[in-house]
Write a structure and sequence with these properties.
By secondary structure, this protein is of the alpha/beta class. The protein has a single domain (5-219), classed as TIM Barrel. It is built from eleven helices and eight strands. It has helices at 5-13, 26-32, 45-48, 60-71, 92-106, 120-128, 144-147, 157-172, 185-194, 215-218, 236-252; strands at 18-22, 38-41, 78-82, 110-114, 133-138, 177-181, 199-202, 210-213. Strands 1-2-3-4-5-6-7-8 form an eight-stranded parallel β-barrel, surrounded by six helices. Strand 3, helix 5 and strand 4 (110-114) form a beta-alpha-beta unit. Helix 2 (26-32) packs across helix 4 (60-71), helix 4 (60-71) runs parallel beside helix 5 (92-106) and helix 5 crosses helix 6 (120-128). The protein is globular. The termini are far apart. It binds 3-methyl-2-oxobutanoic acid (KIV).
Amino acid sequence: MRKTVQDLQSMKANKEPIVALTAYDFQTASIIDSSCDFILVGDSLGNVFQGEETTLGVTVEDMVYHGASVSKGVSNAHLCIDMPFMSYQASTEEALKNAGHIIKATKAQSVKMEISFDSLITIQKLANAGIPVVAHVGLCPQSFNIYGGYKKQGKNKSDQDYILSLSKEAEQHGASLIVIEGVPENLASKITKMLNIPTIGIGAGKKCDGQILVTEDMLGITPPPYPSFVKNYSNMRALIKKSANAYRNEVKKNKFP
Ligand code: KIV
């Protein structure tokens, strides 16, 4: 059975680290499912799957298409789907409509939103409507044009206070989990200690309740350079290239089939 938000919250209480990865397709999801507690269909599919510089062009229908494919491969992990840029910011009504469509069409268990103080009422309404919300704080890739690139957040005291109080408010408005991206370890640690709900970090040090990586980064499928926090557990790029070349050579030399 898939892990529920309550299972993930119990893992925090029992100090068991939460293992999280992204997936955009059925095959990958079915391979990583038993290794994961949490699988995210991230809007990072804009970068990784679609080859775009940012996530800003990703649509609700992209998330539904990839989410429905991933969903068929997930029977152990909790399945969460990202709300793409401008699918939840304009109004709470639009957020409810889009989140409801994503949950109905994909059978995912929660949605993730990159939040600001403006999002708090939406978190509350979604939770009251029965949709668990994962609140993403710190470096929010959908704010690429505000930052002028992908830049670490929480570098000074006022930014840190902002992220801390935003995280606290998210929990108070009914968020089920927090994803913390691209902030100093001491800030992620403070948030993790302050909240009852679990935190999952990426580029936020080792003090969160869990860790998430983009699967294609972890496998070495995306091309280097990688962000400094990424660890390659394989070099699948080289392996795929080698296999494609071996196939090419055999076809060219009439050795295959
Ligand atoms: O879109 C994504 O994949 C994410 C994770 C990297 C946290 O937001």
